[in-house]
Amino acid sequence: MSAIEGSGIVVLVCVRIDPTSGRATRSRADAAAVALAQKALGEGREPRLCTAGDMPAGVAREYLAQGVSQLTRLPVHGDATLDEVASTLESACRDGALAITGPRAESGPGSGLLPYALAQHLQRPVIHEVIDLLREADGGWRVVQALPRGARRSWHLEPGVPAVLVTSPRLAQREDLLQRHSWVAAQAGRIVEPLTAAPASSRSKAAADWRFEPARKQRRALAPVSTESGAARMARATGAAESAGQGGTVVRDGSAMDKAQLLLDHLRRLALVRPPA
């Protein structure tokens, strides 16, 4: 496999099957990962694209249309295990300092475990939920990680420190991330296929003992929604008032003196008025 000198970033891409038309297209998440790598490298440098499996040439051209000169397509057999796919990709990702993957495949088995299996083969750390990648002045990388509620965490990778980056699903929603599509680049790019595939690792006994079943969605009981106000819950918890569900008493009959006495008794029950001496 030919390599682009000084690229330093390998982006793993996959095929997406459109749920409506059933047509094979490029993955939105992987296309955003390619754009992120291009932005981080800047002009004059480009990431290396790699895929494992039978990617149609039309889909490969869609990735090349982003301005990348070549895409490496590594063959794997149809019943390959996760360990075998990770072993095949290991040789392609070994030369790059950073390997960028999407959170999961968008067609076929998509367990989301491939980045972690690849990191185990490469003996590299994993940073997931990556939302941005910046080049530092010292030659290292600034990796920005997306956290819940819009929070961000920043990591500094020293120059030459390898890692596996798993992009955030929100990366494809970034409007400031330019994703170019050039028909000329799509036709000029090359689809490279190695003459011999990387040797697949033998199936382990533990993998042979697994029994695969269709995933079932777990049902979750709906939590009851309380319509009681916060003031009513606080009053009921402190015992300062009757529960809001019990309601109150409306006095229409009787003299003004009787009504005043009922109100005074109520205030005494709430300890708001001193009892009579």
Give an account of the 3D structure.
With 277 residues, this protein is α/β, with parallel strands linked by helices. It is built from 8 helices and 11 strands. The protein has a 9-stranded mixed sheet, with helices on both faces. Strands 2-3 form a two-stranded antiparallel ribbon. The chain starts with 8 loop residues before the first strand and ends in an 8-residue tail after the last helix. The model is unreliable at 1-6 and 197-204 (pLDDT under 50).
Summarize the structure.
With 277 residues, this protein is an alpha/beta fold. It has helices at residues 28-41, 57-64, 82-93, 114-122, 183-188, 205-208, 230-238, 256-269, and strands at residues 9-12, 15-17, 24-26, 48-52, 70-74, 98-101, 126-135, 141-146, 152-157, 163-167, 190-192.
Radius of gyration computed on alpha carbons: 31 Å
Number of H- or I-type helical stretches: 8
Q: What summary fits the major beta sheet?
A: 9 strands, mixed
Instruction: Please report the distance between the alpha carbons of the first and last residues.
Output: 99 Å
- Share of helical residues: 25-40%
The portion of residues forming beta strands comes to: 15-25%
